[in-house]
Specification:
BirA Bifunctional Protein, domain 2; nine-stranded mixed sheet; homodimer; 3 domains; 577 residues; Rossmann fold; YbaK protein; five-stranded mixed sheet; alpha+beta; 27% helix
Chain lengths: 577, 577
């Protein structure tokens, strides 16, 4: 490519609405252009990166036996009603009506459509397993689109759907996809981590997220450096921090703690460790019992220094549809105000659930269910009945790994992929069945597998940038190499050598752009450093008189003189071609 | 590709809603699957063809200097309001609201968005010319979607937009695109014709349609076999069929023609040629004159054997916004009922426009403006004032070519591309200006260039099929070649030879599929003939014992024995590789 025939449009300053590095750099490098909130035009440079990302995904999906098709963006409501998602999904599902008033949705994913394809096309066990995927525009009407391509409304996603005869088959398909994802992210040249994830409402046995590691990532990833344990914060099991409960040594005592509603302040006031305090979180569950609406009070107990993990709460039997109690409900159930709740002496009956660590505490401090008072020396069994015990908290750095192989570490990541064992959630709802060897119908076991194609761009930049701009990995760079001739229009020597090298590089399959725009060196270098092309060769008269060109990698601080005759081989070596 | 790892799903019968050959065959071959009215999933086989079509378009567009980007599908109403198209376009523009109630459209084309990109990115004449294109999903909410991919609602289109400093530049960009289109359609391997087209409401000087020739095509294409004259029916100029008007020889006579309202019946009744009769078509034009609504009567005159061309009517000064007169209006203006109108003795004043041929007729027959009566021996100048003369009719086969180089021929075509000189219609409305050498702002001159990617599939099939199925041209076939082993699972000899040839063909860059599904020969051949793979090699034990394989082209009636050792070279020769 010649820069004079391409479109390059860089900015000195990022627009003020760009909040994070990748958004700022993509705007400044002219990779994307905002059309509306969360809606971007992919400019020529950005589109080249997208195409490379898509190309790698496509190759690895095909290699893994998945079959590409293309499902429509505009999807009839009827299919979404069959699975109930038409009603269940909130306003992020963009609904529209056609000229005849019929309802449609813009697809955020395609479970319904692919299941409809398979239920009409596949009749026999002989046709299974199958895995269909497409790389297609998606729309999700985010409440607050932000961060450029990270949380846009219109975006590109690869979504794949596997169909199997049984759970074993589904697990095999899942593993195949998992391995394909590992290959894909390795080929991108990004540092990533696959972590076990929560399955959410759908259930099933397996789900992993693929995260690009970046200190600016929204998600906390938990892993054990000594083993292959890795999970996201929602799914990471927290072991009890106290192996065995000690004996009660203190009497239960009511102490005055005026205007002291936080565990930190109570510990300070009483001169004890935060790890001696217990915080109480009041929940409400509304149930329909024989047509009557019943309200249950639940109290969760966490050690003062721990954080509640709401996903884990939903796993406690009875708490699937919990909500936090209102102040009025708290007053009614506990006879006091928030900040002084505790498990002992509640006004109404309350279901008590203690975190694993809290369940092993003795002589602990908790609210007295009376404003401005706490209890010290509280003990299970003696002062209050033994609680239900559950894992309720987020793990913290240094916790023991659930696999017993060391201590947990935490790093930040950006979720760019998700693989999911769906089981029969969709196939049962949509009657997607096959006939087995005996002619008996059975619902297919499904899996789904997504990669946020456009989000990869943002994540790759969050992981790879410096104060000059983006640093693309070779495999997904808009160009692998830029040739920067010094005086292409003025010097025959420079032009001749540039054109020769350009032709050779092209013939060798190098994705090269030559900057023939006639810019001054400073402006030219700044453009390509901002755009993030990973390799650069400068062709100048001075160097050429000694037979040399200058190579510089995007992460390198200084250029290296390379004999002109050796440059092709040198570049091929750098690119592994 | 191995068929066992691909998805092939053919049908014996097409669904009943498939009306035309290409729709039927695409459904039967499992290339597309209906999701809703005018909305199709592109199944794996169909998607392969689409990708090949896109690939050829992309290569030729890039070669022609156009730059690829990707503009969003969901576009904010504000831009469409700037050009007035938000209000002007009918319900085929699908409008929707996001969660905040803001208006958006699903793009049918992207003039507004690309003009917005360019007006903010381009400031100087130095940055021009520019040509941006994308290959993107479009939505057009057709009133009556039909014919499969021919007139769908969701479809894929390549649309390009050129921006130039002046008209000469625009014309050069237009010519470049025209030539790129010729290359594209040649590479598809389709018989096509570029015809001059009407510019419609936008005006400007140039517009051509690209049609795939097919006897089932919706459009009539007019061309001169001896020259390069070619136009669509709307735009093809009709010369007068009578060089000079003869002298009046008959007196004007009122003759009784009871219940004879059609020229054919009048001619039969009077025993004259249809080419002696003139048919009258009453129009109404409503105008606002100084705030008053004024109604004008117009009468168009065509020779009895000719057809009205409504596009040409709009070109007659004063008739841009014509409509056909109602029966009440006819009664009021002519004092009679339709079927007996004529230019002589109207009740109210009427503007008379005669087709060029009618203007040169003498002693003609026309309605008497009285029910059940016609006039014979009517003559211009003597019986009625000389009319306004215009080209009002469709040309017919055998007409003289407007370039004087022979007689016109007519064939049918399917429109798959359109190139258009827009001028400043969009740039002026959206203030898309550049600064010229003197620093003066001027609106950019634009062109737009579309190709209906998915429609190409339908058109290619309409041109290339037989009673067995589709016959794809090599360049856009889902696979170039199918290997049909007879007993792949039973015969080691067959398997060995199949695998060897398959590997060699793949290494040679042949897009080959091997049918390892274990079907019986009849079913296997029928599948591939239906799908339309253009080349087939059969590997059988009997042939192999003599060292031979069998080659058969999709259009050939019999197979040719080719020595196994020569087959690779033979195929490469067939495919020009």
């Amino acid at each position: 490519m010649r820069a004079s025939r391409f479109f390059i449009s860089t900015l000195k300053e990022a627009p003020s609405d760009a909040e994070i590095v990748s958004h700022k750099l993509m705007m400044r490098a002219g990779m994307i252009k905002r059309l509306g909130s969360g809606i971007y035009t992919y400019m020529p440079l950005g589109l080249r990166v997208i195409r490379k990302v898509e190309g790698i995904i496509r190759e690895e999906m095909n290699k893994a036996g998945a079959i590409e098709l293309l499902m429509p963006l505009v999807q009839p409501a009827e299919l979404w009603q069959e699975t109930g998602r038409w009603d269940k999904m909130g306003p992020e599902l963009l609904r529209l009506k056609d000229r005849h008033g019929r309802d449609f949705a813009l697809q955020p994913t395609s479970e319904e459509v692919v299941t409809d394809v398979v239920r009409t096309e596949v009749k026999s066990y002989r046709q299974l397993p199958l895995n269909f995927y497409h790389i297609q525009t998606k729309f999700r009407d985010e409440r607050r689109p932000r961060f450029g391509l990270m949380r846009g409304r219109e975006f590109t996603m690869k979504d794949a759907y596997s169909f199997d005869r049984d759970v074993e088959g589904m697990q095999k398909s899942y593993e195949t996809m998992f391995n394909a994802y590992v290959n894909i992210f390795n080929r991108f040249g990004l540092k990533f981590r696959a972590v076990a994830a929560d399955n959410g409402a759908i259930g099933g046995t397996g789900s992993h997220e693929f995260h690009v590691i970046a200190s600016t990532g929204e998600d906390a990833l938990v892993y054990c450096p000594n083993s292959d344990f890795a999970a996201n914060m929602e799914a990471a099991e927290a072991l009890p921090l106290i192996a065995q409960r000690g004996a009660a040594t203190q009497p239960l005592t009511k102490v005055s703690t005026p205007k002291t509603t936080k565990c930190e302040d109570v510990a300070k006031l009483l001169g004890i460790g935060l790890d001696q305090t217990v915080k109480s979180i009041a929940l409400t569950v509304e149930k329909d019992v024989d047509g009557r609406q019943v309200r249950e009070n639940w109290l969760l107990l966490l050690r003062g220094d721990h954080e509640l993990n709401e996903v884990k709460v939903t796993k406690v039997p009875g708490l699937k549809d919990f909500r936090f109690a209102s102040e009025a409900e708290i007053q009614e159930a506990y006879g006091t105000v928030p900040g002084y709740l505790g498990p002992i002496g509640t006004k109404q009956p309350v279901n008590i659930v203690a975190d694993r660590t809290v369940a092993n505490m003795a002589d602990f401090v908790c609210g007295a269910n009376e404003a401005d008072y706490h209890l010290t020396g509280a003990n299970w069994g003696r002062d209050v009945a033994e609680p239900v015990v559950a894992d309720l908290r987020n793990v913290v750095e240094g916790d023991a790994s659930p696999d017993g192989k060391g201590q947990l570490a935490i790093e930040r990541g950006i979720e760019v992929g998700h693989v999911f064992q769906l089981g029969t959630a969709y196939s049962a709802a949509m009657n997607c069945v096959y006939l087995d060897e005996k002619g008996q119908p059975a619902p297919m076991q499904m899996g789904c597998y997504g990669i946020g194609v456009t989000r990869i761009l943002g994540a790759a930049i969050e992981q790879n940038f410096d104060d000059k701009g983006i640093i693309w990995p070779d495999a997904i760079a808009p160009f692998e190499l830029v040739l920067c001739p010094m005086g292409y229009d003025r010097s025959d020597l420079v032009k001749l050598e540039t054109d020769r090298l350009y032709a050779e590089l092209q013939a060798a399959g190098v994705d090269v752009i030559v900057d023939d725009r006639g810019l001054r060196p400073g402006a030219m270098f700044a453009d390509w450093e901002l755009v993030g092309v990973p390799h650069r060769v400068v062709i100048g008269e001075r160097g050429l008189k000694e037979g040399n060109l200058e190579y510089q990698g995007r992460r390198e601080l200084e250029a290296t003189a390379v004999p002109a005759a050796d440059m092709l081989g040198f570049i091929k070596g750098k690119l592994g071609k």
